Amino acid sequence: MRHEMGDKKLFEQAKAYAFDYMDTIAARTVYPDARGIANLARFDEPMPENPHTGEDVLHLLHAYGSPATVAQTGGRYFGFVNGNVNTGAFDGFDAICEEARQAGAWVHVDGAFGLWAAASEKRQYLTRGIEKADSWCVDRHKTLNTPYDCGIILCRHREALIEARQASGAYIQYSDPRDGMLYGPDMSRRARAVEVWAALKYLGRNGVAQLIDGFCENAAYFAEALKENGFRVLNDVVFNQMLVACQTPTETQRTL
Does the predicted TM-score (pTM) go above 0.85? Predict the structure, then answer.
């Protein structure tokens, strides 16, 4: 392995496969076809007794693994969700937070992807009042296309967060002055923040705003196009979601 890494051939091979993936993805269906799924049988083998070269492993993954994966580099498809909670509506945070504060309640905002509306000048009004909450969470993978586990939680009350995450054991050695295991569920984790930083560095504040506005404009476009083709849009499309039905429940079920 050390020799393979030293001569850099593996890196060149991986780069060539990455370029091939990007150059051919437009010709692939988003979901793998039957042949791609069937070819996964190439991986159904006993544990090998001896090592294989890195070139062989990369070849198998590219030739037989990649065609059996969802083909996605961004902008490939638009998702339709069948459900009554997927309208993109925003709660009245300002009034809710005020009432909760008067009652001594803790307010948590599950921002998921909706919290990103605050990054757009055109849609900041949707999140008016969220700054009055006690804690917030937001996903990066749903909007910035970072890896799946790049979620973020923000908490106004540092000590409350630490107390909720406290773990103890004779074998645990805490770092000084800040230990990540006191602020999240994992005792050890990879540096997820690197991908988040890279995405924000690349996009900048204006790029993030353009990304959000693009999502919302696409949703509005789809909603109008669906109406023109006889579908019913059941919600006000204020963000990037819509709830769509045909003229009758029977027709809706048949279409699905």
Answer: no
Whole domain around residue 172: which residue ranges? 93-195
Query: Are 42 and 128 within one domain?
Result: no
Same domain membership, residue 190 and residue 215: no
pLDDT by residue for the chain (256 residues), tens digit each? 677 677 788 899 999 999 999 999 888 888 888 999 999 999 988 888 887 888 899 999 999 999 998 887 765 544 433 333 578 888 888 998 898 888 888 888 888 888 899 999 999 999 999 999 999 988 888 888 888 778 888 889 888 887 777 777 788 877 776 777 777 777 777 778 888 888 888 888 999 999 999 989 999 999 999 999 999 999 999 888 888 888 888 888 888 7
d(CA 183, CA 97): 24
- In angstroms, what CA-CA distances link 196 with 103, 122, 149, 193? 36, 24, 11, 5
Contact 117, 124 (CB under 8 A): yes
Domain count, the chain: 3
Structure tokens at 87: 């309208």
Query: Domain check: are 122 and 159 in the same one?
Result: yes
Do 222 and 182 fall within a single domain? no
